[in-house]
Every structure is written in C-alpha cells, then in structure tokens.
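TL;DR need structure tokens for one chain.
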Amino acid sequence: MTLTVYNTATRKKEPFQPIKADHVKMYVCGPTVYNLVHIGNARPVVVFDTLFRVLRYLYGNVTYARNITDIDDKIMKAAAENGEPINVLAARYAADYEKDMAQLNALPPTIVPYATEHLDEMITMTQALIDKGHAYTAEGHVLFDVKSMADYGKLSNRSLDDMLDGARVEVASYKKYAGDFVLWKPSSESEPGWDSPWGRGRPGWHLECSAMIEKHLGNTIDIHGGGRDLIFPHHENELAQSQCAHNGEQYVKYWMHNGYLNIDGEKMSKSLGNFRTVRELLALYSGEVIRFALLSAQYRSELDFSAELLEQSKSSLDSLYGALSKIEDDIAPSSEALEKNPGFKALMDDMNTPQAISELHQLAKLINKADAGSEQAQMAKGMMLSLSNLMGLLQEDAEAWFKGDANDDAGWIDAAIEERKQAKLDKQYARADEIRAELSAKGILLEDSPAGTTWRKA
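>> reply
TL;DR here they are.
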C-alpha cells in the first residue's frame, strides 16, 4: 500500500517516496505567539499530526518539526500594550498553544524550534545570499532580490506581475524592485534587536523557517506543510532563499497545504465577530470533538466550522464509543489486517479522513449487530482502535467518555443514585422519578439494568 499526497508544487497527487527510506523529515509552520490561537491555527496541527501518525506507522523513523515564531511585530505590539517584555508574553502564549493542541490529541512534534534560538543561523544564511548575489543591503535592511532567481514564483504558479497585482507589497525607496522581500531589518532603541554585520536589527519572518529547517533537518526535506494562506508569500519566499543559499539544491520534495476554515459560512474575522479561539471552544466541547470536526472534511477542502458541525461530531463520537463499550474485554489495537481495510486505504489516498471516519461507523455497526462475545465483534473492535489511532480518535476509555467532566462530580451522582435506589426499595416511586429528573436536568442520564444502575453524561 503506497501513500499518495497532493503536491502543491506540481499541482497533482503523487506517490510518496521519502528521500531516505529509513528517515522521513517533515516541517510544519507553527504559530506566531502573541495571543491565544484561533481554531484556524488548529486545523494544520490536526491535519499534520494525523499525517505524522500515518508516516510513523509506515516508516517508523519520522522527524517532525513545528516551529514557534517568537520574533514578530505583532508580539512587540502586544507586549507594549501589556507593559511586559516580549519574551515573557511569547513564552506564556507558546505554553498556552502547546496545552491547547495537546487537548486536541496532537502528539508532541519531535522538535519545537524557537526563532529566538536561531539568530546565528539566520545571519549566516543572509550573508550567504549576499555573497551569492541573491541579496543586497540598503538603509540598514537586507533584501532578497527576487529577479536574481529565474524561476521565482514557481510554487504559487505566479509571474512577478501577478505577484505585485493586488498583493500586499511594501513599497519602499530602499528596494530595487517592489517585490523584493526583507531578510533583515533595523530595530530602534525601543525595539528588540540583535547585533549583525548590518547593524542592530531583527530577521524577516520568511527567513526564520529556512534557518530552522537547515539546522535541524538539513538542506532538503521530504514534506513542508501549512495552511493554504502560506503558499504566497511565505512559502514562496522560503523556497527562494533556501534554494538560492544552497546553490539550487532542492528545498522540499512535497509541499502540502490544508484548505481554509470558515465560521458559519464566512471567513473568520474579528471584524465580523466570528473569531473563535481554541480555548473558548474547549470550554464547550472536548478536544476530541473538535479534532473530529476538523477531520470531517478532506484536508485540502474548505471547512465550514459551526456549532452544528460540533454537535454532529459529538453525536458521531458517542455512537462510536457506544459500540466500543459493548465489548468489555480489553482488546489491543490490531494492525494485522489493517492494510486491507477500506478506512486505511482511504488514509493512503491523500489522507481521505471523511472516508476513513465512514469506515469507523461501518465497523461500529458490525459490532452492534454481532454478539458482543463473538470473534467477529472483537476483531471489529480491534480494527476500530487500530484505524482510529492513526487519526488520533477514540483515545479515551468508553466509560470515561460518556461520564466526561462529570467524573469530577462522581461522588454526589453516586449518592443520588443510592438515594433513588433506597426510594424504590421504600416504594417511594415518585421520589425515585424526581431524582432521575433532577439528574437529567443536570445532564446526567441513568441506565437501569439487572446488574444495577449506571450513569453517563448526556
């Protein structure tokens, strides 16, 4: 079974063949940490975490780097408004980001490089570009000369004229050409800065990723991922500076980009009032519900994120966990027949997670129809767990899933159940019904059986 991926650079699906069969290298652009991250930031995390899981299953040895941008004008502005050092603000929001992403069942990347830890590498790359005739200095700035690269624009498939037309390009007197982009810029006394051959300053945004990839993953990597909005100018400029710094050596073999995320059919925007942080959503839904919602559409398509989608995702997970709960035996995930499973084949086809989720439901139906103790049902459970692990789903114990946050209140719930049990023994049936209704109003559902009464969160 061969994994195929859509390569933005070639604009077609291709069989994935790693540069080295025994080691896959993947880099994904992380956040600029000046505030709590929004749900749009979470989509690439969940998408490429799923790909990370698949690649580890297929190849074993995978180095996955996801950076933290902690040098940026937005960080400087937020820190100034708060009256605190930028490193303090950036560290706090970086920690918040990692905490929120963990709630979405995202595995820790192999490497989490911070921009502030790679200033030497950025300066070295900038000097190399000057020496090779691809960059120039002007008024304390160092700029990349886009016309020095014959095929600049090949990733986004744009000509120089196309890139200037309608693009947010800073027009400055010190530029030879309006499309030239900043590698290094000067800092005022009140701004954070670092010493360099061109004076005290700080790097341009595009330079950071190139330097971190070179240090931790080498000149050429297998996969570079991120949101579709990064194709131009960020990834286009990354490609240009890295390839020119390394004498035309290939920078990335497969470029992969997830589609846009809209809120209730509209682009997410603070001005529209539909800006949603992951932290806000986690107060309403479990991280696994949010992850399920993000995987409900194929990663390259646009995703309309809404309360309705989250409710549907919660209902789907309830159904899947319900099937798992019917088989009480502990069954380890089984990969023996995984590669013949339609869900696995869907993941191999450019990460078709909606089709893989559909297969999880088919397996759940099989369990629900079969005898709980049958070999067929147990094999289906093993397959469900194996397939869902590749997507970071069904990671909780089924009983814990249904009790949810109410586990914190298990004491008073159990006490209410005991009171109801005693009321029934005393033939106070009206009181027993009242207790059931009181629990139901608080989102606690009771299920009576010959073995006793159990509860779960609605």
